[in-house]
Amino acid sequence: MFNYFERVKSRPEIYNQLTCRELLFVHYKCPMEVNKQDSWSQHNFIQYILSGKKAFHTPGHSWLMRSGDAFFVKKGACIVEKFFEEPLCIMTFFLPDSYLQTFMQENNTLSHARWTEPPKNELLIPLQVTSIMTAFFDSLIPYFYSDTKPSENLLELKFRELLLNILDNPENGELKNYLTHLLSPQYESFQQVMEANCLYNLSLQDYAKLLNLSLSSFKRHFILLYKITPGHWLQEHKLNHAYHLLISTDKPVNDISFESGFENSTHFSHLFKKRFGLSPLKYRKENEVSRPS
Length: 293
Known about the structure:
Elements: E1 2-3, H1 4-10, E2 16-20, E3 23-29, E4 36-41, E5 44-51, E6 53-58, E7 61-66, E8 70-73, E9 76-83, E10 89-95, H2 97-106, E11 124-127, H3 131-145, H4 152-167, H5 173-181, H6 190-197, H7 204-210, H8 215-226, H9 230-248, H10 253-259, H11 265-276, H12 280-290
Parallel strand pairs: 1-4
Antiparallel strand pairs: 2-3, 3-10, 4-9, 5-8, 5-10, 6-7, 6-9, 8-11
């Protein structure tokens, strides 16, 4: 499991960067690494595919993004799949909650009465890309390679221009609705974050970071809410998900282990046998025998 934001920030030789206080732009050609990885970020981001394609997978949902597509990804975890038939070139804009909340407060006319229903609990929001947005993305590329870096004031104006262009388009109402709800006192409950991200190999420190809490505050909140330790709760959710995949699909055990957030298939098999009394393969075989024809 890797932290996308931290990886990008720590490797400027690969990920060309422009920074403005808590904001970060990156433009890069994706390194030829593994084609499928689990990834997470403590910050939201907008991503634009300049060339190539990639996919995002969460339990029960997948999105395939191609050249010319843009999307808003909420902070959290997912499985990222890359395809290397052609170079994968990407532009990413990291946007912390705090920045988006301030932006929506300063631009309160963007809120629309029509968008008052709770936002969907999906990681990714596809965006409609207009010719204006395409021109905007193209206009940014020279800034990454200029000998003189643009000022922070100019970069912040560019961030604001991007958000205003997106939110001014009625077809991007789902994102406008989500950003409006960032201002709600009920925004993103502790439970929502945990249940959306429990099937990934995140540490407790990672969950705390996602919730903007210290590790000790996270553990205290968790036990108050669930009446159980976070480690035990997470293990039960992962094992139950793996059990469901094992008896309802033909996926290999290695894939089930990966998709259920276990460190490796050996560790998964050990925990599964401890909980269900049989190894995953034996459990599947016995279940198939006992299943009515």
